[in-house]
Structures are given as structure tokens and as C-alpha cells.
Amino acid sequence: MNNVLFKSNYTDRWYGISDHISDTVNVVESIGGPLIFGGTCSNQPDSNNICISRYFNSTLQPLYVNEFGTELYSINTIAFHSGSKFTFGGEFYFSQGVGTYGRNLATYDLVNNRIEPIAIFDKAVNSLSYLDGKLFIGGSFQTNLDVQNINFLARQRSSVGVSNFPSKETFEFYPNPFTTSIHLEGVQNRSVYSKISFDGRILKRGQVMNETINDLAFLSSGILLLRLETSDGFIVKKIIK
């Protein structure tokens, strides 16, 4: 047996689940019929590289495998609300293709077998819970994207926006994709903006003038984040060049 046990009904016998499981299992979550296991995983020789597994019909299947670098990853918490995706948090880094990066918080699509990172936290996520359809996040992190102060507790606003206090203000922007400039409707002049890459680098920072951000031709093509500072918080939007 390897880290997971279950007990048969009406007997005192315990059975072990082996293979395709993390070295140390930290979290077990029931999603529909299957059980989802998360735990520690490493890409080092003689270590288990399986971070997340699914157990269904007496079969274990690895879902997320640590294939990046030399870090020890740890899946600490899993939360599910509805649909085909569950959210998981811990200490890990995910990179797949151009413009797809994330650290310590992501979703897994059980239908398409696809991981989507939704934050870049500086430290671990330890707990996740949904309340009224909103995801609350707890951990030892203090920043998201290295620029947004979030002290230990956050709430998800959108697929790319995580903040401690969501802004009540909204705005529209176009075109998306853009080439050299972006027009923003409903944004006050001199509002501070930042263009941030998905790996957390600030590519451009300035003030909105005449509801427009100009001089963006130098940015490389790909997915970026537009972070706008408002009077009561931050708004983060995903944009494409």
C-alpha cells in the first residue's frame, strides 16, 4: 500500500491503494463519483512526480505530474463548486506554452484534462473554500504578481483577477487583441495602470490620458494582464496583443 487506505463496509479490513499517487497525500476531495488526491511531488530521481491523481472504478490515474525544474511541489488544498473544473492550491509552478504561467493556484478541467493557472502568489496556498459561488483563498502569501499586496487571505474576482478587496468600479476596453493602443471607457484621467506579463514582470506602467493607453507597439505578442488602480481597489483584466 502507498499512502492511501480505505475500509470495506461492515468489516474491519483495510485496503491499500498503490501506484500513481503522491509521495505524501495532503488532501482528498470527492468530486462527483471519483476521488481526487493531492500531495507532494518531485521531478528528482528516486522521487514520485505525481502531484494530483484521480481514483475511480478501482483505478488510479495521474492528472498532474511535476515535470519542471528541481523544485519539490506540494498540493495542499482542493475545492470544487460546479461544472467540470476544480481549483487546487499549494506550492508549485506551472508553465505550458507561450504566455501561460502560474504559481500556487490553478484549475483543472476534468473533461479536457487541462490546467489553467489563475494567480502568481509569492508563497503557498494552504486552504480554499467556496462561499456563495465565490472562491476564498488562504495561505502564507503576501503578494500576487509580485505587485499586488494580499496578506494571507484573498478572494477570486475573475479567472485572472485575485485581490484582497475587489474594486466596485468597472470599465470597458478595446480593441482586444490590440496593437499599439487601448481605449478604456469609464476610466478617469491619470488613473495608474500597469501592463504585467504572466510571469509577474511589469512591462509598462503609467497614467491613463483621455481614456487611452498609447505607445504599446514595443510589447511582444501574447497574453498580458492590465492592472488598473482605482479609488477603492484594483481591477485586473486579461488582454491579448
UniProtKB/TrEMBL annotation:
InterPro entries for the chain: Secre_tail
Name of this chain's protein: Secretion system C-terminal sorting domain-containing protein
Protein's organism: Portibacter lacus
